[in-house]
Amino acid sequence: MKNFFTICFLLFKNYSLLRIYQIIESKKQILNGLSLEFGASENITKNFSNFAQGSNKFEYSNLANFGNKKIIPLNLKKKLKMKSNKYNNILIFNVLEHIDDHSVSLKEIKRIMKTNGTLVGSTPFLYQVHGAPKDYFRFTKDFFSEKLKENGFKKIKVKCMGCGPFVACFSIIYSYIKYLPLINHIILLICYSLDSTLQLFIKTKLNEIYPIGIFFIAKK
Predict the structure, then answer these.
(1) In a domain? residue 176
(2) In whole angstroms, how far apart are CA 93 and each of 36, 122, 190?
């Protein structure tokens, strides 16, 4: 039940449980230098770059730029029209599941990163289908461990976010109960308690079996 009070506070802001876990992990990152965030929102204040620590300058990208000159239109299915070794850090949250062909994406991300640059990202797992405009994949911890290594990344760390099956169920139904303040907090507390009790009888970490999402960090 670590971070429970932080989670409850962010629930009041109507963040999904997946996004809350991603925000918590983002706040742990110390990023310096020039960074690029893929999948950036038109509203810059909603991007994950706002939660990272350190002395950094961010640029933003999306498949479409929404008519916003601050957002660079980039398609990760194709070779990027961008010079190599440009960025110290790359953030890519909730993007890769919307790409149907990853034969180019990870290679291009690595190419535009500087040596020893940091890649930070996350994707959903036990989470609703969400088109942007389409939703193709759910990736496991093993996928990122192996694919990042295949593409030449090092110091790879992959983490399953969540607590267990009951919290995963809460995450799935949250879009229907988020309009019930305090009640959804009580339901979440019950779910955390049930998962914590269940964990006492199971050796495998339950969040490894029922992750809400996957978080990863790697170096070039």
Answers:
(1) no
(2) 12, 5, 29
